[in-house]
Fold this sequence. Notes:
By secondary structure, the protein is α/β, with parallel strands linked by helices. A nine-stranded mixed β-sheet has the order 1-2-4-3-5-6-7-8-9, sandwiched between helices.
Amino acid sequence: MNKCICVAALIGVLLSLxxxxxxxxxxxxxxxxxxxxxxxxxxxxxxxxxxxxxxxxIRYGIWRTTKARKGLVVFASGRTxxxxxxxxAYTELLAKGFDVYTFDWRGQGLSERQLRHSxxxxxxxxxxxxxxLDAFIQQIVxxxxxxxxxxxxxxxMGGHIGLRYLQQHHNVFDRAQFSSPMMGIKANTWLTRQFxxxxxxxxxGQSCAPGSQPVWKSYLDQDACSAIKSGIVSLPExxxxxxxxxxxxxxxxxxSCWVEQSLAxxxxxxxxxxxxxxxxxxxxxxSIEDAKGHLDQIKIPVVIxxxxxxxxxxxxxxxxxxxxxxxxxxxxxxGREDKPAAHExxxxxxxYTNQYWTxxxxxxxxxxxxxxxxxxxDRFSHLxxxxxxx
Length: 390
């Protein structure tokens, strides 16, 4: 009897050695296994790994185009995001002939977290993000050794940090394009700033901002991975939160599926992110103010694509930022009245993502933002340019 038990146990061990790890571990092998099951047409990165940058373990990915190469794009994601979330954007860029370099911000994705409880998003100063971005560019991308056009692209928080980077580094990139950059937050009022300052003073800096949840929450009510495999993704019973970000439920399901699989692999450090901390909010308010006074130092052509219906960041702040630059074109998305563009333009329905990529084509074809605006104005009337054609 004991011999049978031992043989059965040995067989179980041997089978487990050949079985795939449960969930998604963030590795290149894990990436290949995940997309084979849930997103078979997804391009595979050349590298997906971690390294030490600016005193932290930072995870990054590199994709190489198989088309005639035009240059490279450094992609800076938004708060709560992770490398895999913006795969639709990388797919477009690769098809247009651009290599893609991107990473998980410290405190997000599978980069090093800042707190013992890993899910709250914490930072004490956005200058740390800026230093991380510069370290990634100088040590991993090494733009001075690259040929072709060099572009910086960013979404939301990544767009804000990207604009601040361009203020300080004038000869790294040839052009830049940002979606819904975080140049203003609706909650950024005098009263809120005073309250946040008090909470920081009282020692609550590492605690969740009031009204936010410490743990990651899916966009959907249903299991996202199961929904993808069944081909049926349903609107949540309370859809307001999902629709803050995108009208494209399939893209939201893909984003949530990555986190679900990562959570299954390691509940203590996965792709998802919960609340912003008090200190993160305090640092964001300060960084937004710091950015306003120096935007005229950005000389390269910049295109900003935003939605007037965005309820996460303020579109009016994007208008002001574009007007402050000497070479900027602002694209205000337009489309269906029943489904106005939400915050996540890069994973929106085709009506809006197509507008983003039309703007990108105009930017890369033009010598400056004024020319890009002129090219776009021939087809659209909802543009604001800070630089008109001579």
